[in-house]
Amino acid sequence: MNFSDILTVTLTLFAVIDILGSIPIIVGLKAKMGHIQSGKATLVAGVIMILFLFVGERILNLIGIDVASFALAGAFVIFLLALEMILNIELFKSDDDDTSGSIVPIAFPLIAGSGTLTTIISLRSTYSINDIVVGIAVNLLFVYIVLKSTGKIERLLGKGGINVLRRVFGIILLAIAIKLIKLHISF
Question: Fewer CB in 10 Å around end: N or C, the chain?
Fold first, then answer.
């Protein structure tokens, strides 16, 4: 295990999951549902991410896509997610009408959505599985803490603070996307 790689994986997933940027969505869902099952949402999201880490490549092989191509496609998705965060625009539409509980839409697709799963496959082409598992675990711990204390965080940061964090992590994510693209394309 390499600490630098773990840090890169952790920050990449942190930026893609964007749990702090999702606080307004979580607050709205909490108002509709009355309660968010933080533990259940975190556990389900973790299971989805770990399963995709281990069987995602097999699924890709089954349909004839190599990991490098998927990683490059994932880098472009990450690039677009970063643009969303930086420019405060919505490129990817989500179903905000679903109020079925903590699994949908919080665990999936908010935490373990397409961006996160694509990122995990992209990271797998560059980093060790152990580093990725540690990065996932650190992020899940942070997700759990944020879900448990959403109201306090919202009051502490305010809307402006959340927007600043979202843009800062958007720029970090954009740089990571460019790095991943450079790894898979020869200029």
Answer: C
